[in-house]
Amino acid sequence: MSKINNISLRNGLAAAALTLAATAFSGCDSTTTQNTLPIYGEREPVERTVNGETVVDTVYHQIPDFAFVNQDSQRVTQEAVAGKIYVTDFFFTSCPTICPKMKTQMLRVYEAYKDNPNVVLLSHSIDPAHDTVAVLKDYADRLGIETEKWHLLTGNKDSIYSIAENYLAAAREDEGAEGGFSHSGDFYLIDQQRRIRGHYNGTEEEDVDRLIQDIPLLLNEKKDEKK
Amino acid sequence: MVAMGAFALTTLTQCFTKKKDEGKRLYEQHCQSCHMEDGSGLKGLIPPLAQADYLQAHRNDLPCIIRHGMDGSIVVNGVEYNKAMPGVESMRQDQVTNLLNYIQTNFGNNNPRYTMPEVEQLLETCPVQL
Asked: Chain-wide mean pLDDT for chain A?
């Protein structure tokens, strides 16, 4: 019995030493896969010349500038998320299917980062004709949310559907779907450069747990870049 | 004749197999996406079913609400809600009974169950739909 323990202890020590060595090596590399989130979307290499040498930069898919209106009738543009990370989704207030579940889960994200000014939530209505500022205001009041932390957005329908494509979100009018619109229930995590760094099923509690855990990775990334 | 036989057989089989879970199944199919798995609802938007006073105070209205939906402002456990709920017109009275019994005896609820004749009678007196 004690012999077996002895062997496993020795093995354990060897494993620990190996792990330590591996950590030491990977510690030199600032982009350890474990602690960084992937960058989603198309990317293209762009060549530029620095001191006579050709350098290849990768240009990542970036969410374009936008302008919508929130539940307090305030204009919300990319300025609202400048230097911040944000979580975004698409919904409509009269949605009879997945939206209530999504909002329950988004509330968990809201509660988790309520006191962190560097995290913002943007929920776009894909039924802006019905979801006027007044309707969104009532919805926000009933959810009990603060506007500056969680913007419910309405605006020009084409602009909303176009920005949905930029988030790689499927959203469209669909007479066959319950409520008249079909859309994905995903939450998207966007970094300070407006790049997509994560997508999560907004109706699955476990996947939203993953989102809540991923947010600090992006927040720390910002600190690292500043150093 | 064959169809009727098949129907009778199906009904009989159901009595011995899935009937027990039908209320839960119907709940998951028609109610859960708004009222949530645990009957908690959604803040001030969708009323809870869990320990909701409304289930007792409006017990006799519930079969009609399930079948025809409801609209307008209601108060549940002291909170005002105002969101239309779609009904399920196609739901048979035995299904309404099973669903209501599931709701009345789950999520921490411990309310009296309905009988089929009771639900049948209540469904006959539903307000006229405009």
From this structure: 85
Mutant choice from B42, B49, B88 vs A, greatest count of A C-beta within 10 A:
B42
Quick check: B9 pLDDT over 80? no
Q: Which residues contact A32 (CB under 8 A, 6 or more apart)?
A: A26
Q: Is A41 on the interface with B (CB under 8 A)?
A: no
Q: What is the pLDDT of residues A45-92, one digit of tens each?
A: 988 888 889 999 889 999 999 999 999 999 999 999 999 999 999 999
> What does CATH list as the number for A64-226?
3.40.30.10
The structural domains of chain B, ordered by start, are 20-124 (1.10.760.10)
The residue among B87, B100, B109 whose CA lies nearest residue B59 is B100
Helix, strand, coil shares of chain B as percentages rounded to 5?
50, 10, 40
CB within 8 Å of A182: residues ≥ 6 apart: A170, A171, A172, A174, A176
Confidence band of A207 (pLDDT split at 50, 70, 90): very high
Phi and psi torsions of A31, nearest 5° = -110, 60
Give the SS3 label for residue B114. Answer: coil
Give the distance, in angstroms, between the CA of residue A106 and the centroid of all CA atoms in the same chain.
11
Distance CA A61, CA A6 (A): 54
Minimal Cα–Cα distance from B33 to chain A, Å?
Answer: 6
Query: Over chain B, what is the mean pLDDT?
Result: 90
Q: Supply the pLDDT for residue A8.
A: 47
Does ipTM top 0.85?
Answer: no
Nearest by CB to residue B46, choosing from A97, A100, A144, is A100
